[in-house]
Amino acid sequence: MRVKFTNLYKLVPKKKEILVKINSLIKNSKFVGGEEVANFEKNFSKFTGSKYCTTVGNGTDALEIAVKSLNLKKNSEIIVPANTWISTAEAVVNNGMKLVFCDINLEDYTICIKDLKKKINKKTKAIIAVHLYGNPANMIEIKKIIKNKKIKIIEDCAQAHGTKIKKKHVGSFGDVGTFSFFPGKNLGGFGDGGAIITNSKSIFNYCKRAKDHGALKKYDHQFSGRNSRLDTIQSAVLNIKLKSYNKVISLRNKLSKIYFKKLKKINGIKVFETKKNNTYSFHQFVIKTKKRNKLRSYLLNKKIDTMIHYPYMLNELKFFPNAKLNNCKRLGDQILSLPISEEHTAKEIEYVSNKIIDFFNKKK
Ligand SMILES: Cc1ncc(COP(=O)(O)O)c(C=O)c1O
C-alpha cells in the first residue's frame, strides 16, 4: 500500500462549486477585495469566536503585522518557542525587536511553562505562543504568569484552525492571533493566505490599514504600510472550504485515535499527550523516537511518506540568537510526522501503525 503524506488535490472539497465560483469571479473581473473577502472575514471571525478579523497575504505577514500592532519600543524582548516554523522568529527580528528563545515541553511540544517563567524579565514585552501541530499551548497558565505585568500575547495559530481550550478557540486568549492558509494547512487556499484575529478595536484598526498601505479606502493613507491582501479568489475558495471544515477536524480526530491506540503501547516511541479540556485539530501527528532515521527509511521502503517538523530548532540556526534549551536538544533528530489528513482512510492509518509496530518488533 502506498501512503502519501498529503494529497493536496484530494483535499480540495466541492471542486465543482469552487470552479463555478472562480469562473464567475473571472467573468466579473473580481480579483482584489470585495464581498468575498468581507464575507470570509466575517465567517472566520465567527468561526474563531473573535470580535474582529482581517485577512492578509500569508501567515508570515500576519505575524509581522501583529507584532507591529503592539507598538513596542525597538529592542523590546519577545519570547518565542524554539520549535516552530521560522516565520514566528522572523516576525520579531524583522520588527527590530530582541528575540528570546524559550524551551518547549515534551508532552505536546508547545512552549515550556517552566522555562517561560525563567525567561521573563523587566525587558519582556511580549510572548508569541505557538499552537504547534494543532496542539494548544497552555494559554491559561501563560495568562496567569503575565497577570499584572505589561506583557502582550500573540498566538501563532498557523497550524491550529479549530484548536480550542475549554471550547474557546485559540487566538482569542491573547491580544492578537494569526493564521496561515498555506495550501498544506488544515484550512488551506489555492496559494498563500493569512488572517489576523483580535478582540481589540485599536489592534484591528491598525492591522486593517497596515495590510493595505495604511489606508481603509483608496488614497486614504494614514501611515506607511504594505500590500498584504488576501486575493478575492482565495477568499472565495476559503469561504467554501470553511463551511465543511468541522468535518475535517472530526475526521482527523477519528484517525488520530487509531495512532494513539496502536502506538501508545510501543516501547521506544513517545506519542504526544492530549488533555481532556482541549480540542485538537491534528495538523500533524508527531512521534518521538531515538531510532527516527532508521524508522523513517523503513517506512519509506514500505511506501509510507513521513516528514519532519522540524529537523532543526530555531536556536540552532546561525543567524538567530543562541540559547541552551534542554528539551530542544537533538529534538530535530528524534521527531517524525506521520501521515494524517481527512483524505486518509482508517485502513491507511492502521497500515502505517502496523508497519511501525513491525519495525520495533524486529529490532528487539
Ligand atoms: C507555526 C507557523 N507560523 C507561521 C507560518 C507562516 O505562514 P505562511 O507560510 O502562510 O507565511 C507557518 C507556516 O508554515 C507556521 O507553520
Please describe what this structure looks like.
- A seven-stranded mixed beta sheet has the order 1-9-8-5-4-2-3, sandwiched between helices. It has a three-stranded antiparallel beta sheet with strand order 7-6-11, with no helix packed on it. Strands 10-12-13 form a three-stranded antiparallel beta sheet, covered by helices on one side.
- Helix 1 (15-27) runs antiparallel to helix 8 (232-243) and helix 2 runs parallel beside helix 8.
- The longest helix is centred in the C-terminal third of the chain and has 19 residues, at 245-263.
- It has 364 residues and is of the alpha/beta class.
- It starts with 14 loop residues before the first helix and ends with a helix.
- It has eleven helices and 13 strands.
- It has two domains: 15-243, 3-Layer(aba) Sandwich (Aspartate Aminotransferase, domain 2); 246-363, Alpha-Beta Complex (Aspartate Aminotransferase, domain 1).
- It has helices at residues 15-27, 35-48, 59-69, 87-93, 113-119, 139-146, 201-210, 232-243, 245-263, 292-301, 346-363, and strands at 52-56, 77-81, 98-102, 124-130, 152-156, 164-165, 168-169, 176-180, 194-198, 270-271, 278-279, 285-288, 335-338.
- A hairpin with a 2-residue loop joins strand 6 (164-165) and strand 7 (168-169).
- The protein binds pyridoxal-5'-phosphate (PLP).
- Residues 58-60, 63, 84-85, 87-88, 130, 156, 158-159, 180, 182, 192, 194 line the site of pyridoxal-5'-phosphate.
